[in-house]
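Run log // design_07
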């Protein structure tokens, strides 16, 4: 550790950039003002396809129960976010001792490396940049297992991953993976878990609720496995990004360990109260999964018919694409922004520098407008 810079020595420039929150490398979706300025375009209202939230918006029950929720601001919340814990208990029949609530999944992502004492991690990439950033900040070395377009970003070679894990103490894996949309087979992951019992498997299932028959993919019920840690988020599926709701499911010994490092009162009172109302939204959940599947399949079908745009298979509520009609993705982004449509530039993800972008699945009307604008590209890009 360098005492002057407070960061681990020997990091590559990209890795150092990930640590610096003001750097473009750490950008998330939902920043159209940045690209309006960068592309020298006047700002205007947009349809934001860069943010992967439920296209149905929050459940209809939210405005009705909001007066009751807001009353929680008058009192301290519980130390450990009991409302969120009870949501997972009642929704998934998970024992209390296997649960820890968090201020969204992001708090959990940054808690795990320091609580587990990670020194060397393997990240399945391209993936959510905060896996790397959280690991580096805690002082861990980071290696990557690269998903490739040749295998549609969806293939895990068990032998190769297991070999790489011999020199690491943890694997980070998004399932479904962001930004590729890859959905990994549970049996394949379990083979790795059993083959590498000394390594941690940190599985981020923030987008799992969007998956039909997700019980066939999720590790939520695998809390008896002492080396599996599952991250969950409620903000994506319920379109509540402004109210941070998340948690972690793990063996009881792991939860006890995490509690020694976690700050108290990170889940606020309104979030605790709101979580319990989400238990009564099963009809909303089913409609969401039906809508996402139908619209995602329709979008992929339409995108395939547009020359120069290659969509990849997805198991979630977003689609990874590659722009091939010109040498610079900015050409597509400028055209879309000038028509009030914003997409997620994925060139800051290692492995996606070659003009990749991501689209959220939105409402039928929004998706129709997206395709219409994409098919109206100027002749110079045809």
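design_07 sequence
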């Amino acid at each position: 550790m360098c005492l002057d810079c407070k960061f681990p020595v020997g990091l590559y420039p990209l890795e150092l950039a990930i640590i610096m929150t003001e750097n473009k490398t750490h950008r998330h979706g939902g920043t159209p003002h940045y690209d309006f300025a960068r592309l020298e375009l006047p700002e205007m209202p947009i349809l934001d396809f860069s943010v992967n939230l439920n296209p149905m918006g929050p459940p209809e029950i939210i405005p009705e129960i909001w007066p009751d929720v807001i009353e929680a601001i008058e009192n301290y919340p519980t130390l450990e976010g009991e409302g969120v814990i009870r949501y997972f208990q009642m929704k998934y029949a998970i024992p209390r001792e296997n649960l820890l609530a968090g201020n969204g999944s992001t708090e959990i992502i940054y808690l795990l490396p320091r609580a587990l004492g990670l020194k060397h991690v393997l990240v399945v990439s391209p993936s959510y940049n905060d896996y790397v950033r959280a690991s580096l900040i805690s002082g861990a070395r980071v290696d990557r297992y690269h998903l490739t377009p040749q295998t549609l970003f969806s293939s895990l070679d068990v032998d190769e991953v297991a070999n790489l894990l011999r020199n690491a103490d943890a694997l980070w894996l998004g399932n479904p993976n962001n930004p590729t949309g890859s959905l990994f087979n549970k049996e394949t992951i379990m083979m790795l878990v059993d083959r590498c019992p000394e390594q941690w498997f940190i599985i981020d299932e923030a987008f799992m609720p969007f998956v039909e028959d997700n019980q066939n993919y999720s590790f939520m019920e695998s809390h008896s496995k002492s080396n599996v840690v599952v991250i969950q988020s409620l903000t994506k599926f319920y379109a509540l990004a402004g109210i941070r709701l998340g948690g972690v499911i793990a063996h009881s010994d792991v939860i006890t360990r995490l509690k020694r490092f976690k700050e108290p009162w990170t889940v606020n009172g309104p979030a605790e109260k709101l979580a319990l109302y989400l238990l009564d939204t099963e009809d909303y959940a089913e409609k969401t999964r039906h809508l996402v599947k139908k619209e995602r399949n329709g979008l992929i079908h339409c995108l395939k018919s547009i020359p120069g745009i290659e969509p990849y298979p997805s198991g979630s509520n977003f689609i990874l694409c590659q722009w091939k009609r010109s040498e610079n993705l900015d050409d597509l982004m400028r055209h879309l922004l000038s028509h009030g449509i914003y997409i997620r530039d994925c060139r800051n993800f290692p492995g996606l520098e070659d003009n990749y972008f991501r689209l959220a699945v939105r409402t039928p009307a929004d998706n129709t407008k997206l395709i219409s604008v994409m098919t109206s590209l100027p002749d110079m890009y045809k």
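The domain at 13-56+283-381 is CATH 3.90.1150.10 (Aspartate Aminotransferase, domain 1).
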